[in-house]
């Protein structure tokens, strides 16, 4: 089976109740659930949560919540891979063998069903262990600076001070939307950021981390602008 797993624990601290806080008229979690369902890529779309209120919202928008996530997998230090492993193992134990699993973040309102479908195609066509969304940095990372203890600045790569931007290698980063993967790779705990992964390119205007209140405001502005253009 092909399984979508949306991790959504209840203990968000920087933005309390972030996963079900209203974002442009819907609980944040709802956008990811709807994109997953609209993609038609999954046999089941589940939410992995330790929180009964989040579970109720998830069910309201069409996801299933077949289990409540154990507390030891719901703290600030639990990574993505153990959460997906737990979901795959749960279904395998129930007699529903998982072939492919996609981790879809609950705080990814810009995710689109067509990108999820494209991710599945990339995974299957390339024979990769994982396929996940990436986007390019807006500024050459080789020209980045850091702040020193003395309150001054220093380049991370001073040898590139005089290098033209167009001569520097383009760099990319995780877009933080979804991660398709073979169940075997998830269960082995293979690293996602490695040679076994294939990229799914996204434009920068559809990528926004939402970790702070400032991020949230910016994301709503971007989302409303995109909706107005489409409408």
TrEMBL record:
<keyword id="KW-0548">Nucleotidyltransferase</keyword>
<dbReference type="InterPro" id="IPR050793">
    <property type="entry name" value="CMP-NeuNAc_synthase"/>
</dbReference>
<dbReference type="InterPro" id="IPR029044">
    <property type="entry name" value="Nucleotide-diphossugar_trans"/>
</dbReference>
<dbReference type="GO" id="GO:0008781">
    <property type="term" value="F:N-acylneuraminate cytidylyltransferase activity"/>
</dbReference>
<keyword id="KW-0808">Transferase</keyword>
<dbReference type="InterPro" id="IPR003329">
    <property type="entry name" value="Cytidylyl_trans"/>
</dbReference>
<dbReference type="Pfam" id="PF02348">
    <property type="entry name" value="CTP_transf_3"/>
</dbReference>
<protein>
    <submittedName>
        <fullName>Pseudaminic acid cytidylyltransferase</fullName>
        <ecNumber>2.7.7.81</ecNumber>
    </submittedName>
</protein>
<dbReference type="InterPro" id="IPR020039">
    <property type="entry name" value="PseF"/>
</dbReference>
């Amino acid at each position: 089976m092909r399984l979508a797993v949306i991790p959504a624990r209840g203990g968000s601290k920087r933005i309390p109740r972030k996963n079900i806080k209203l974002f442009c008229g819907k609980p944040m979690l709802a956008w990811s659930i709807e994109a997953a369902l609209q993609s038609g890529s999954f046999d089941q779309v589940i939410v992995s949560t330790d929180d009964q209120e989040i579970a109720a919202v998830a069910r309201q928008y069409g996801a299933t919540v077949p289990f409540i996530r154990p507390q030891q997998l719901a703290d600030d230090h639990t990574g993505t891979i153990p959460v997906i492993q737990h979901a795959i193992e749960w279904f395998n134990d129930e007699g529903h063998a998982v072939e492919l699993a996609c981790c879809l973040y609950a705080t990814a309102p810009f995710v689109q069903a067509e990108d999820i479908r494209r991710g599945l195609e990339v995974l299957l066509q390339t024979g990769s262990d994982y396929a996940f969304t990436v986007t390019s940095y807006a500024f050459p990372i080789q020209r980045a600076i850091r702040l020193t203890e003395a309150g001054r600045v220093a380049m991370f790569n001073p040898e590139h001070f005089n290098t033209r931007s167009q001569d520097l290698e383009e760099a990319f980063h995780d877009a933080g939307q979804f991660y398709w993967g073979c169940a075997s790779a998830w269960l082995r705990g293979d690293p996602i950021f490695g040679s076994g992964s294939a990229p799914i390119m996204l434009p920068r205007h559809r990528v926004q981390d939402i970790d702070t209140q400032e991020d949230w405001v910016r994301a709503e502005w971007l989302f409303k602008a995109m909706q107005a253009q489409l409408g």
